[in-house]
Protein 1
Amino acid sequence: MSLRLYNTLTRQSEPFIPLDPACPTMYVCGPTVYDYVHIGNARPYVVFALLAALLRRRHGAVRYARNITDVDDKINAAASAQGVPISAITDRFAAAFREDMAALGVPPPDIEPTATGHIAQIVAMIERLVAGGHAYAADGHVLFAVDSFAGYGKLSRRDPDDMLAGARVEVAPYKRAPGDFVLWKPSTGDLPGWPSPWGQGRPGWHIECSAMAEAHLGETIDIHAGGVDLQFPHHENEIAQSECAHGGRPFARYWLHNGMLNFAGTKMSKSLGNIEKIHDLVRAHPPEALRHALLSAHYRQPLEWSDAVIEQSLRTLDRLYGTLRDLADIDAPALIPPAIEAALDDDLNTPQALAELARIAADARRGGSTDARRRAKSDLLGAGVALGLLQQSPADWFARGVGNGDDLRIQGLIDAREAARQGRDFARADGIRDALAAEGVLLEDTARGVRWKRA
Ligand code: AMP
Ligand code: ZN
């Protein structure tokens, strides 16, 4: 079995050969935490976590970083509208994001860096770019000089005029060229800011990802992924910054982009107002049905979101759980069937994997000897493990169906405690554990992660 991935950089399907076969590296652009995220935002996180799990099976390990953008003008606007510090907004919505991901069966990444936790690395990278002649300071800002990088445009393959139109660039007197983009900007008044060689200020969005990827995964990473809407300018700018800061060495070897989730015919987007928040959806539908719906289209294709798509996934899962219920008398280990692995190896062909799952279930319903039924159950459970589906007992699926809001909240808090521990914020981690204990929820650290039970 060998994994092939479609690489946007080369516009080709390629065999995946990591730099270090013992531990591939992957970076995915994470959310900006100023509000609840919508189901379109979940698409990259569901799909690329599936890829991280696949890499872990193939290579034994993976280093998967997915950041949290916790400094941004939208965050500043939300904080000043509500009269609270930005951390009140970012803490709340980062926790809500983790809760939403847990509900959709997305495990936390190996590393979840925050932009505000990497200001020193960001400033250091900007200093290197200035020293190398790739960036210049003007009016308290630092700008990247696009014409200092011959490779600019190689990912999106746009010509310079298109790039200007696509970026809807801000014309500003301090820019040498209209396409130059901001690495650092001044902060005045109440705006969050940090001291820097260019005065009190805050980073631009693009430089955050370059600095965090370098800090945790090194100069050249295997996979960089995100939505196709980030290809330009965000990813193009990440390449420019990282390659110029690293003496021209390649930044990411494989670029993966998911297609957009559309709602009522257009991209689901907060600015258009046509959104469905995960937070609301998981309280109205079984979260596994939402996950199934997200996996029902190939990740590079557009996905038209609708109640009918959710309904279809619900009916499919009813059938699969019904089959599992019929096999309740049999004990079987979960073993991932080769046909499922082969589908995923083919550029994460989840529609093909779901078709295999349906075929396995149809075989299982045909019955046969105890051995045949055991094999069928192993295959079903194994396919469920690979896809993050069939993770409940049939009794729970049919009894409850809809995500239990309180369980989701508790899982979100447990994930927040894990993130605090990773960030060595033990006071916060202990605080969360004590708060849970006070409501009778006991945590147990096991080799397979944190378990919880009600006292
Ligand atoms: P944002 O917070 O807008 O930067 O988005 C976070 C992630 O969600 C990025 O990888 C985006 O590309 C992705 N994304 C945003 N909107 C959609 C959508 N409608 N469909 C699929 N992915 C999306
Ligand atoms: Zn990014």
Protein 2
Amino acid sequence: MTDVRDAPTTTSPISTRKHGDVLIVLSNNPPVNALSTAVRQGLVDAIEQAEADDSVHAVVITCEGNTFFAGADITEFGKPPQQPWLPAVVDRIEACTKPVVAAIHGTALGGGLEVALSCHYRVAVPSAKMGTPEVKLGLLPGAGGTQRLPRVAGVRKALEMCATGNPIGAKEGFACGLIDRLIEEDDLIPHAVGYAEEVRDVRPLPKSSEREYKINECDPSVFDDFLKENARRFRGFEAPLKNVEAVKLACSRPYAEGAIEERKMFMELMTGQQSAAQRYFFFAERKANKIEGLPENTEPRPIHRVGVIGAGTMGGGISMNFLSAGIPVTIVEMGQEALDRGTGLMRKNYEATASKGRMTAEQVEKAMGYLQPTLDFAALADCDLIIEAVYENMDVKKEVFGRLDKIAKPGAILASNTSYLNINEIAASISRPADVVGMHFFSPANVMKLLEVVRGDKTAPDVLLTAMGLGKKIRKVPVVAGVCHGFIGNRMLMPRQIEATKLLLEGATPEQVDRVHVDFGMPMGPFQMADLAGVDIGWHRDPNRVENVRDALCAIDRWGQKKGAGFYDYDERRRPTPSPVVQQIIEDFAKKQGVERREISDQEIVERTLYTMINEGAKILEEGIAQRASDIDVVWVYGYGWPVYRGGPMFWADSEGLAKIVDGLNRQEARMRSDFSFSKLLLNKAENGEKFTS
Ligand code: 3HC
């Protein structure tokens, strides 16, 4: 067989060539073969060509590059739609009078999977993945996907795929009937052509839209069960519920009617605020990876071994990220007991993952095999990157960096996991400040996706590039931050916490403040978060020095969930209830400080806690601490669970209108902390009717 990839190219992203009596339709639309207008038109033309040519008896649709069609072209969303529309394209493919085979490698996603579903047959290499990630963009598959997928793969599988957006592998696709044949890697097109030849005379053509048995045998309780199982995960989101509704329609209506309803729901979601926020966030996340002001030709430094100082919760979690990615780690502790405890916990965490079926026992051993635990600081000498995760204190950090300065090899990157401290001051204390960078992981470090990469004044460009690239390699979402107290995320947390605590004295309860945040879509409110993280974090540890509510709680051992008591009381299953003790402490403090208590409205809580965060975000932007507003949004969605359907704090502020934010802050200014000040950027933008994110 000739190499069909030598096909002549045309100006259209779709080219065709014949192999025997099979027409091969090849898409070449980098980087991900998105289904742009030209691709859609090319597909229709190719099907017309196949039908018009009597010498063609079957068709294979496939793609060049890394992937099969990864979906509709998201950059076209929100613009006037161009013909031919995808639903018409897929219907045209299915209506072809000659068998059409989709040959899949990489990822068949969204509209890409809908194209595959409209083909009469689907073959794939084992590494291929299929999915309907539209829900992650606040959408549902809008080109027949919710109607064809349950008919082909079964209702339960379709529900899972559409409502969660998680892809499945080709082997799973084969098992559920989505894929008709698995084909050896690297041999896709010739075998797909062979398959097309095998089925060329089979009639009637198997059309996904006409398959009934999988939807007929569906148990109607599947929908409620599925929603119950996922209630927490879907809280606040519109799209998952619409996806479920659409799949349900497939079971109760003929295909054509279901497809019309699907389209209506798709358009409803597309024009809604949640999808706008989620589509914005898709690009925000990708933009965060781009570093501004980096000299051209900057190359990353090679990283073969990572050193981690400290085997506590943080050091252990950080190490696991590298081990999971196959990067050897030397982990150093001061005492054998702490070292054993730390490595033991890492193993336990891996084993817990394995027990949930998300890792095999071999993978656990493989990951742990990359770990070299030691008490010998000098063992860090052969590491290319060393991250310290020691006690959060400037003197302690400087001491560690001083020792590293003596033993680290030339060119090694020296990183601090500090969450607040000044990276410039740490860098200035050693002889190689250009090698110093902040790598701020969020706890639990093996789980949380966010990584703030802190660029010091002297950090070398290649050091920054390496840290960002490595972040991606260990499957984090890295965001560049400048040096300031708390960087992007924690700095914005501070004004929120201050106002939340002030509100307690003025008459709000912890439950009310937390409820407002949870209703907004946050996973938890400020006091639930304090209880989870530990009320004692940063406490001066003197029970006789009681200057605020937090000191009072710490003084009586109410350190949060770990002690069974904090802002709330906890039962043995860590379920919270409001605490009369805490209420009394709050009221006593209010009295002592002469604060008049009053009824606090939910709106005031929003304005004083969330609007102040926006103000701080604007300062972060005007000071150049964040490269762009969307980076702040990425930090808050991945680091603190800001609801992605609100895009992130800066996008949310834009959608509320910046004038409204300024009005709210003006209304509250007299009640807020005395050192509150407006961001000039926020005021200017509000006055000029501008936005942060566009
Ligand atoms: N449309 C337009 N651009 C897209 C795109 C799409 N569907 N998918 C990816 N891109 C762009 C990215 O923005 C990025 O651009 P950049 O280089 O300028 O930043 C570039 O392609 C590469 O993307 P990634 O950095 O994400 O590359 P990866 O290799 O890490 O991942 C991928 C590849 C798994 C395909 C991932 O890009 C992805 O998940 N894409 C989105 C898939 C998706 O959501 N499809 C559904 C679209 S909605 C739809 O189909 C509606 C239909 O039902 C009607």
Protein 3
Amino acid sequence: MSEFSAVTEATAPGKIILFGEHAVVYGRPAIAAPISQLRAKATITPSSSNNCIIIAPDLNRHDFLQDLPDADALARAARLVLKAAQLGPPPDVTIHVKSQIPIASGMGSGAAITAAIIRALAQYLDRPDLQTNEMVSALTYEVEKIHHGTPSGIDNTVVAYEQPIYFVRQSPQNQIDPFKVAVPLRFVVADTGVRSSTKVAVGDVRRQYNQQPARFAHIFDECGRIAKIARQAIETGDTQQVGKLMTENHAWLQQMTVSSPELDNLVGAALQAGALGAKLSGAGRGGNMIALVEDDAGETAVCAALQRAGATAILATILA
Ligand code: PMV
């Protein structure tokens, strides 16, 4: 019987990137926000099996921790906490993972699952020092490296802090500014239904940057400039400006070749239905787009248009 006996659980939210994806990998500012209504949850239960078991029905997973390679994200998350806690052999527990966040669609499902496992395990081991936002973010970052080699750090940050974040990747320490939204922003998030790999999209942008450094540096600069003004617009409640900047950001993401016909189709449909702005969100090539709407009527019109345009899932969310 383990000395840690209570059942513990922890959750972490999904996220959207409002401004600056991809350019953020190259040190330009970006803005991300949590989607608190979509969550990943990890539950730790003491087990009598003399093993640490990881169960994730959504991912078709039921494994002994000891059998998993370190490149496995779920195993890596658990091992990082055990290592940080300086625990010898893993405790005899079942780690049960469930998520409402769609996989490979730019909504941070991997980071949220990791953060939930880290928080739940740290809580189970009674280690408050491993449950701070900074620590959860830092450990989640280590796991994110499995998904693609050069994560900017924005996903783990927003998922761990669960606040709108203005983020700049830099050495020796990233700039992380949680900030206030002056006037609630209403977003519609719509899924193309196309699954896309962040690693592939980030790798393609890297290749193009290497081939055309000046052109891509300019594109990244423009995305960073937009993110900077967008922060001011969000902090002063200039919703019209936020929308305009989103659509502008989408055009630069098209230049990076990370949009797709499906994303452009949904962005176009949302704008035509009266959205204040629209863009892809996350790594692109598939996954989700976001549209900013003014009010109830705007939300209804944009949701209907996105449905007609073929969105496979639609979610309305308010960032306050
Ligand atoms: O994993 P996604 O789809 O949310 O994309 C992450 C955002 C990128 O800027 C494309 C990559 C990164 O590490 O910031």
Protein 4
Amino acid sequence: MSLTVLNPATEEPLAELEQAGVEETDVAVARAKAAFPGWRAVAPADRARLLRRLATLVEEHGEELARIESQNVGKPIAGARAEVGMVAQVFQFYAGAVDKHHGETIPVAGGVDMTFREPMGVLGLIVPWNFPLNIASWKLGPALACANTVVLKPAELTPLSAVRLGELVLEAGIPEGVVNVVVGPGSVVGQRLVEHPEVAKIAFTGSTEVGRRVMQGAATTIKRVTLELGGKSANVVFADADLERAAAAAPYAVFDNAGQDCCARSRILVERIAYDRFTSLLVDATRGVRVGDPADEQTEMGPLISAAHREQVASFVDGEPLFRGETPPAPGFWFPCTVVEATNDDRVAREEVFGPVAAVIPFADEADAVRIANDTPYGLSGSIWTRDGARALRVARALDTGALSINSNSSVRVATPFGGFKQSGFGRELGMQALEAYSEVKNVFYSTD
Ligand code: NAD
């Protein structure tokens, strides 16, 4: 069965790809298994060198990769360039980590006790459509640094950058079979990877609903899983914050990537005494978001990924919003920047919209802010805006969420751990922490008697 890949800004086909089924997935797993002993035997310094070469190739092909990503996901080109820049940094970082992730010696009686970080074997990397290349690199970097081989399954809607990356991996000199990119449906290829007895671990990023299924499926073979799932993060704005700065930044924390961001701070919690002033600043700032052709250097927000997704996003907006922006005319899966007033019990505040819809919710005081922010099944990211440093830290400690920022809305950095609490998943990506989830600790006791 072939797969037609669309440009969501024009609704025109970009490519026609063959889709893999169970048989092709099994072949890819077998290739990864065959490549494992050789890859594991590569000296650490050489593995690092190959990862550095991959980083350099990603940089050299940066513009090409950014254009692929921009066309396939509908991302503004400027943002796509920044994302590809991060991909190169991720490979650089994990090239540097290869020989810094080591075991320990532990004082015990009668001998020497030492630990080793062993690779797991063949890993299944399952990636969503919103940040296809970035999220693939977050998994590939530590997986390869720890000497695993992988089958990478991109999302059906956005496979093009992963296919190109697979070519660059070979060009970098990473041996055949170490990285196998398999394009196909999640319910077939993804599911097979989850069930396959020769796959040691699934590193999954996607929806909480599918993540739940992955976890269930992995139970049969006691597969390791890391799950990076959905979010419903709170952007908590106290009255003593720099309101102009907080309001100017808030739209980009929701409307970036057209809201299709697991970290989207889609619940904007505002202290009641500053509510009117802040919402008026927020509406002004949202009016300034430039929505349009992703290829235009000035564009800040592109279309949604598909017609079906646009319908889903639209279902969250009933009644007259506080603000609704403009969109370019059809074709394209456009949806306007939308700001609604809500309570935390409304559907728009409870479920992940995954589109450019921000819900503004008032709160009474610090305790109320913490209560509302934590009143969600998710716990991925969030922000706290205040000039009171002690309060910022008090609230940061009180929030049940994995990646927070104070007086800022950015949660993702190459060197720092990223991942969720509660139903946003478990396991951490990025930073040195990610290496824990891509290796097994082996303990060896050597008797000196
Ligand atoms: P999705 O769950 O529908 O799909 C994710 C991937 O899983 C795709 O490659 C898909 O083909 C595959 N898949 C589908 N069914 C499967 C199955 N039964 N077994 C195995 N794999 C299967 O998610 P999506 O719509 O592509 O992405 C959006 C979701 O991803 C949002 O919920 C978002 O919050 C989440 N996300 C989370 C993070 C994070 O780091 N926490 C980052 C980006 C996106």
